[in-house]
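Subject: for your reference before the review

Hello V.,

The reviewers asked for a structural picture of the protein, and I figured it would be easier to keep everything in one thread rather than splitting it across files. Below is the amino acid sequence we used in the manuscript, unchanged from the supplementary table.
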Amino acid sequence: MRRTLPGFFLLLLLNFIVFIVLAAIPHHAQAQWWKASREPVGLAPDPAVTPEAIIQVYGARAYSWRGHLGIHTWIAVKPTQAKSYTIYEVIGWLQRRQRPVLAIYENVPDRRWYGNMPELLLEKRGDSVDALIEKIDQAARSYPYARNYTLWPGPNSNTFTAWVSRAVPELQLDLPPTAIGKDYLGYRLVSQAPSGSGFQISVFGLMGVLVSAVEGVEFNLLGLSFGVDLDPLAIKLPLVGRKELAW
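And here is what came back from the structure prediction:
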């Protein structure tokens, strides 16, 4: 075990250095962020012909240099017979305009995140989903950081998604390790894991551990998550994400 620890901490240090270096690089393309594609990609059922209730959770690589490190996540819901989706997400740049960062609005949920392809992290449909949608709405509107945003270690967009997921454990949402900020608990040290199951110990999202039947076992250092999931067998790595292992 002693032989593996230096390599483990070296990998942690290298990941943190990458984060700092990328953050320091000037990215002139950021001035053109509004020109990046927000086109839908066909992952969301058409609400006009889909009467059943739907919950979807999406993740997409963040814009510009941030995408090398992590993802942005958001939640979309459509109650039974509704003709449109409601989206819940935290948008950091709203803070610059002195507006709440928590945004709740109607739109197409599966749009590219400023050029980056979204991935469907979770989907639930059916008769029981309407009750979960009500719980999602209540949890979102009680989010304690609706006017606060910090890219690293949180609270950020992934902190919000994890907050809702803890409040609605029926979702059993397994956020990937690239969802930096999901482990941010503010001044709390102990909580449920982001999935709402198991438990988590976290110091401002910078150091901690979680054990859950949904997420498996994860260790967090400097906001970077490493872990193992047993069902199905997979490893979780910063920057890379979740990778299933074939027997």
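For the response letter, the relevant points are probably these. The chain is about 20% helix and 30% strand. The helical segments are 4-24, 129-141, 157-167.

Happy to draft the paragraph if you're swamped.

O.
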